[in-house]
Structures are given as C-alpha cells and as structure tokens.
Amino acid sequence: MSEWPLLQLSVFFLFTALILQTMTAAMATRRFFAAGMRDLAWGLFCVALILLIPLLWRPLELALHVGVYDFEQAMLAFCVAFALFLSVSIVSARRAR
Q1: Residue 91: count of CB within 10 angstroms of its CB
Q2: Could you say which DSSP state residue 36 is in?
Q3: 76 with 13: CB under 8 angstroms?
Q4: How sure is the predictor about 41, in pLDDT bands with cuts at 50, 70 and 90?
Q5: Residue 16 · residue 78 · CB < 8 Å
Q6: Torsion angle of alpha carbons 13, 19, 23, 24, nearest 10°?
Q7: How many CA atoms lie within 13 A of 51 on its CB side?
Q8: What is the pTM of this model?
C-alpha cells in the first residue's frame, strides 16, 4: 500500500488543526480583552494557545516540503485543537450571556 494517502491525510489534519488553533487563540484573546484584561487565567491561556501554533506549523512544514510525517501525531494534534476550540467556544458563549 502506498503511503501517499497517509501523507495527504496528515497534511489535512495538521492544516485543519493549525486553523482551529489560530481561531481558538483569537477567540480567547478577544474574550480576554472583552473582560478588561483583568483575568490573569485568560491572559495566560491566550499566551499558551499562541505559543502552541508553531508546534503545529513545524510538522506541517516537514510534511509538505520534505515528506516526513507522523499520521498518529497529526490526528492527535487535530483532536486536541478541536477540543480546545470547542471548550473556548462553549466558555465564551456561557460568559456572553
């Protein structure tokens, strides 16, 4: 079996995780500034989310340019990014009410 489909799926999962992580960091940062920058936990969470973005960028770059990939790691990165996106969305929606 060719490894080409796994490479394509890895790139898809990593790219989607990168987009989700960026959206999550933007939502958390917006929530932090909407709270008047008083909540230290949201501020630190925003910094952590922003610092996680390069951790997704490097494997994506390796997969695209060199062809080196880890399919399981790409799936795990997608699941984590999706869970973070859902949790920030739900918390932001609850606090907005």
Answers
A1: 15
A2: T
A3: no
A4: confident
A5: yes
A6: 30
A7: 6
A8: 0.88
